Amino acid sequence: MKTRHGVALTAVLMLAPVAGCSSSGSAPAAIQPVGPVDVSGLVHTSAGGEVDPAKPFSITADQGGHLTDVTVTGADGRVVAGQLAADLLSWQSTSRLKAGTRYTVRVAADDGRGGRGETSSEFGTAAAQQLLTAELGPDSSGTGLYGVGQPLTVKLSEAVKDPAGRQEVERGLTVVSEPAVTGAWYWVDDRNLHFRPKEYWPANTKIRLGYDLQGVPVADGLYGGEAVTRSLRTGDRVEVVVDAASHYLTYRRNGQEIKSIPVTTGKPGFDTRNGIKVVLGQEAQVRMNGESIGIRDGSTEAYDLQVQWATRVTWSGEYVHAAPWSVGSQGEENVSHGCTGMSTDNAKWFFDQTRIGDLVQVVNSKGATMERFGNGFGDWNVPWDEWLKHSALGRPVATAGAQAAAAGDAPVIG
After folding, report:
1. What span, in angstroms and rounded, lies between the C-alpha atoms of 237 and 242?
2. Quick one: which of 252, 234, 232 has its CA closest to 242?
3. Which is catalytic among the residues 44, 66, 321, 337?
4. What CATH number does domain 2-124 carry, 3.40.50.2300, 2.60.40.3780, 3.40.50.880, 3.40.50.10950?
5. Whether the predicted model's global pTM rises above the 0.85 cut
6. What is the tens place of the pLDDT at every residue in 208-264?
7. Does the annotation count 321 as an active-site position?
8. Considering 44, 247, 337, 339, which one is annotated as catalytic?
9. Distance CA 232, CA 308 (A)
10. Where do the domains of the chain lie?
11. Under a CB-based contact definition with an 8 Å cutoff, are residues 16 and 37 in contact?
């Protein structure tokens, strides 16, 4: 039934009491029920065809009557927040509608003459024209077991520049861990976010990362796409310190020193980066060529080698690896082109004892500090107070409690 105000709702009628008078006027007569009251012509909605999910949804009542209760519920059972006007003549949604979603509307109204009724209807929101999907990391190609330095990553399919849109994205991300930690999101750029705890992950932590913004408006014409989750866990707390001044590597597991290894690091002009790095990958054998780091072929610094037991810590080519050609310098001086070199036996031991996400910190080198982003994970070199400033919501995240239920609804990938 169409009205001048919008789409009228289908009536579901209720009985309401009405007062009467006694014939003598000395006492009220027994209350008599009124017949069914049809309020479908009294109540109107702003829905007409497919509703624009970016706009508020409203309900109005004709003069003479008023609204008493409004409930708008999505297909997922979630109730849309709204505000009833002080004069009870209108109601408007205060939370955003999702795109491509069916909603049920139930309204109770008074016709102004003592009669009350309930009406109900449905409407749908228009489908999103552009979807914001998310790729969660670390990826699922490994065993799901990582070191305690591994950041969580989110790569968005579209750039999100608006601060309000970024806040919406962060609200749609959940991190749940056991044991719980305090962490925060950092916007690396318009499409990439990293999450890390204030301190390293505890050893043997179960972690679940979720993205659930399905149908939620993020920016003009951009809505959240498919919900996904990623599960992983950490192993022992492995911390490696490479001292470029003493020429030794110290390997600690769960706070206990396990081994000290003589090494060589970058020589002058090729100084190894200082700072905390995260293991990115491992290769039993890899070809290393000086041209990959800008050394001209045929120069005195040129090299082209097949290298064994290589543990990568930067994308630009810094490894911890076997360097049998420099054993005489290991523990004595720095002669490499930036990598940390050791004997083949020690490199094999290190390779076997290390996994992606473990921590490798270089100290006392004359080189620059590890880049924060873009050349691996330099996340741990950012002070916590500064890290928090790059969250759109500007606040830490507790990885326990109410988030656990939210993260459990999405399909698991990996």
Report:
1. 17
2. 252
3. 321
4. 2.60.40.3780
5. no
6. 999 999 899 999 889 999 999 999 999 999 999 999 999 999 999 999 999 999 999
7. yes
8. 339
9. 28
10. 2-124, 130-236+382-407, 238-381
11. yes
